[in-house]
Amino acid sequence: MEEIISQAVDQAIPELRDLSLKIHKNPELCYKEHKAHEAICKYLNTIGVKVTPKAYGLDTSFLAEYGEGDRVVDFCAEYDALPVIGHGCGHNLIAVCSIASFIGVVAAMNQMNVSGKVRLLGTPAEEGGAGKLKLVDAGALKNTTASLMSHPTPRFPHISPSSVGIAFGTSLAAAGFTAEFTGKSAHAAQMPSAGVNALDAASLAYQAVGLLRQHIKPTERINIILPEGGTAQNIIPDKARIRFSVRSETLKEMEILRTRVENCMKGAALATGCEVEIAPAMVPYAEIRPNESLCTEFAQYMSSKGMEYHCDLQRKGIAPFSTDMGNVSYEVPSFHGHYFIPTPPGTAMHTEAFRDAAKAEEAHSIAMSVGKGMAVVGLKILVDDGFAAEVKNHFEDDRKLR
């Protein structure tokens, strides 16, 4: 079955390379990925796969599926881009990697008469739009046995140079908010005493957050900008706005940190005589809860092909980013691996350098290898009763730790 998967993916490599480049050349923001959606659906139709476009009420989601049975394996495909820098997160590679996995499993199921169902789920708007949460709410994962995807990244400096990626790793939970400060305008020179300065409140809140950073965990993050702070220098600003995000190791810890940051906003409003209204600006993303069985099986397969993946079940790595795949991992057993692609020294995610690396042929080749590995793991869920039970048991055990 592994050989069937490998041959099927190898045969599809040229077309998937073209598809990856097409997505990369036409970056689209969350919920506007119409070209990517159309290109992927068109490709799947040409290879004889049943596709439902605009699935689950989302214009840029799709669903491709094959087979029948109680066990259902999903591969998640992302394809949205970032403002200004395009595919600086490599979602073009994520898309074709998951498509390769789907193609591989379909080939094995077809030739070996395997029961069960494999699905390719188009998941738009990962970059802050919480597309997977909307799919969860729409029932997309209702009967899913396991969900898999993998993400390209620059090399992590703390991981052994012999490792080509991370199998057992998590991310940070995250949420975004706005704080709207309201004061009272006045002529800044003639009668400043008549005004209540909303920009003062925003500035004080910014400083309070800066002081708070000394007393948070090393893995936690607070990011803050001031997109609004007045309209003219000779008028006391009666409006100011802060946008901030908080990240912690778990959803529970993130809620605690959020409260501490909100208190900075409220305290600044009280000190300056302003009013403040705090509102969500981003649906909370949960941390990834990696399934031990899925991660171990993937790492073992990749190792058998000469590619070592970091997989320490006693000490899972924490990547300082956030993804709505974390919310999927709260719902069903999940795999979200990281694979390193060649980048210039010092390259970070969400940069032009990483965007350029994500279109390189070597990066595509690595993504295809990862696609094969995920396909092998997905197929094992369908054909191996003991492994499927183990995956479920690890998921239920993890639920008790949340």
From TrEMBL:
This is Peptidase M20 domain-containing protein 2. InterPro entries: Amidohydrolase, Bact_exopeptidase_dim_dom, Peptidase_M20, Peptidase_M20/M20A_hydrolases, Peptidase_M20_dimer, Xaa-Arg_dipeptidase. Residues 174-268 form the Peptidase M20 dimerisation domain. It comes from the Eukaryota. SUPFAM superfamilies: Bacterial exopeptidase dimerisation domain, Zn-dependent exopeptidases. One of its GO terms (molecular function) is dipeptidase activity. Belongs to the peptidase M20A family. It comes from Penicillium angulare. Pfam families: M20_dimer, Peptidase_M20.
